[in-house]
Design a protein that fits this description.
The chain has 471 residues and is an alpha/beta fold. It is 35% helix and 19% strand. It is built from 14 helices and 20 strands. It has helices at residues 8-14, 66-79, 85-88, 91-107, 109-120, 124-143, 181-194, 209-221, 255-267, 287-298, 319-334, 366-369, 385-393, 408-417; strands spanning 32-34, 37-39, 46-50, 57-62, 153-154, 160-168, 171-175, 198-202, 239-240, 245-249, 277-283, 338-341, 356-359, 376-382, 397-398, 400-404, 422-425, 440-441, 444-445, 458-466. The protein has a 7-stranded mixed sheet, with helices on both faces. A 3-stranded antiparallel sheet has the order 5-6-20, with no helix packed on it. Strands 1-2 form a two-stranded antiparallel ribbon. Strand 1 (32-34) and strand 2 (37-39) form a beta hairpin. Helix 4 (91-107) packs antiparallel against helix 6 (124-143), helix 4 (91-107) crosses helix 8 (209-221) and helix 5 (109-120) packs across helix 6 (124-143). The radius of gyration is 24 Å and the shape is globular. 47% of the residues are buried.
Length: 471
């Protein structure tokens, strides 16, 4: 599975009748969206956004500043007051509005996927079938939760009655990363709005276009409040941060499955995933064969124009990320890892980096410790299960991990020992709207997705009644 919940095999099947990117006026809104209105920024500042595949400027976007943020927060506060139409709306009506927004995203799916590819450089079919699919499913999942968020009746003393209520926290602030701009947008607003909150959104300056288009869809819905703004001072914070995610490959695994799933984890979205499979521990008896098959599989990756349906590997997001990745690749060479495949740029003055495989990687090397956020696969070896688990857990991060084995006992024991928020068994990037996602240690606070995410966007109130004695 890939991020958003669509399998890679399913994606390959769909490409037989692939959709074509739309060729109409794509960029319709470049202003700040506050209180259901498009506005110029107060200070009149603008910033450019570029197509990372070509370096061509797509447009200039209004840059919100402190004054714009203040206006956005005030509008969001007004919209969440107890007397407001949004706050007084019954829960099922909130669900209908979220479903309506999902309907509009279905209607504009081609346009949104094209914008996402132009702005991020990810292959168009991944944008269409994975990012859009996951975004729409997330909205519909939380639309179904709106009238099912309820408290409990608690047994206490006979002379008291106690119940709990779940109430919205109020105005929520969300900062969206550039690697999955639309999907992360939905991960934030869907549970927040489901609970009855309002939201102030700050999209990444590298990739603002799909968020701005969703603003126009929200305007069509007419009742939801969001804004493209900057940081707000949050009292409650949920953070989904990075990872240095380990995969443990045992000798009894389905070897080809392990090779393919792990490379999807390592190279999907050009490695620009917080879930990237960046530390692969392979049992010594199958180590050389795993490396050989990984190189053979990597040679099948198609690098090229993200709008070409045959392309499976696009550019990095910008020059800063490109330079960081190339620096880490050089460090791998200098520290003694064996470069098995790739390791260089594709062409001159481009942001494309070849899918890169290192073997002979040691735990002390930078490429084994630092989050690369690029298409670099680091393969290490291990002798026994205890060693593999200890080394895998020896990291300040704890976002995701994966185990490849045909032994159910081993799968259960290793997954129990892993210090990560998610453990995948014989698969990778299996993310769904229904399942909670988040990390241990320095990989974040709180959880996205699933029922667990609702707790981040609601306050629990306890109400206790003293009962009158009756005869």
């Amino acid at each position: 599975m890939a991020e958003g919940g669509t399998s890679e095999n399913g994606l390959q099947e769909k490409t037989r009748a692939f959709p074509q990117p739309v060729k109409v006026q794509l960029i319709r809104n470049t202003k700040v969206f506050i209180n259901n209105e498009w506005r110029a920024s107060i200070r009149g500042k603008r910033f450019p956004t570029f197509n990372p595949a070509t370096g061509v400027k797509l447009c200039d976007v209004e840059e919100a500043d402190r004054e714009d943020v203040d206006e956005a927060v005030e509008a969001a506060k007004a919209a969440v007051q107890r007397s407001s139409p949004w706050r007084r709306m019954d829960a099922s009506s909130r669900g209908k509005l979220l479903h309506k927004l999902a309907d509009l995203m279905e209607r504009d799916r081609l346009l949104l996927a094209t914008l996402e590819t132009l702005d991020t450089g990810k292959p168009f079919l991944q944008s269409f079938f994975i990012d859009l699919d996951g975004s729409i499913k997330t909205l519909r999942y939380y639309a179904g939760w709106t009238d099912k968020i309820h408290g409990q009746s608690l047994p206490i003393d006979d002379s008291f009655m106690c119940l709990t209520r779940h109430e919205p926290v109020g105005v929520c602030g969300a900062i969206i990363p550039w690697n999955f701009p639309l999907l992360m947008f939905m991960w934030k607003i869907a549970p927040a709005l489901s609970c009855g909150n309002t939201v102030v959104i700050k999209p990444a300056e590298q990739t603002p276009l799909t968020a701005l288009h969703v603003g126009s869809l929200i305007k069509e819905v007419g009742q939801l409040i969001t804004a493209a703004a900057a940081n707000s001072n949050l009292k409650r914070v949920t953070l989904e941060l990075g990872g240095k995610n380990p995969c443990i490959v045992f000798a009894d695994c389905d070897l080809q499955l392990a090779v393919e799933e792990i490379q999807k984890g390592a190279f999907y979205n050009q490695g620009q995933c917080c879930t990237a499979a960046s530390r692969i521990f392979v049992e010594e008896s199958i180590y050389e064969e795993f490396v050989q098959r990984s190189v053979e599989n990597a040679k099948k990756i198609v690098i090229g124009d993200p709008m070409d349906p045959q392309t499976t590997h696009g550019p990095q997001i910008d020059q800063q990320q490109f330079d960081k990745i190339m620096d880490l690749i050089e460090s791998g060479k200098n520290e003694g890892a064996r470069l098995e495949h790739g390791g260089g740029a594709v062409g001159e003055k481009s942001l494309f980096i070849q899918p890169t495989i290192f073997s002979g990687v040691k735990d002390h090397m930078r490429i084994a410790k630092e989050e690369i956020f690029g298409p670099v696969q680091c393969i290490l070896s291990f002798e026994n299960q205890q060693e593999a688990v200890e080394r895998a857990n020896n990291s300040p991060y704890g976002l995701v991990s994966a185990v490849f084995t045909t032994s159910m006992d081993r799968a259960l024991s290793v997954s129990a020992a892993m210090e990560t928020g998610t453990v995948w068994i014989n698969c990778y990037n299996a993310l769904h709207a229904q399942t909670p996602f988040g990390g241990y240690k320095m990989s974040g606070n709180g959880r996205e997705l699933g029922e667990y995410a609702l707790a981040e966007y609601s306050e629990v109130k306890t109400v206790t009644f003293k009962l009158t004695e009756t005869t």
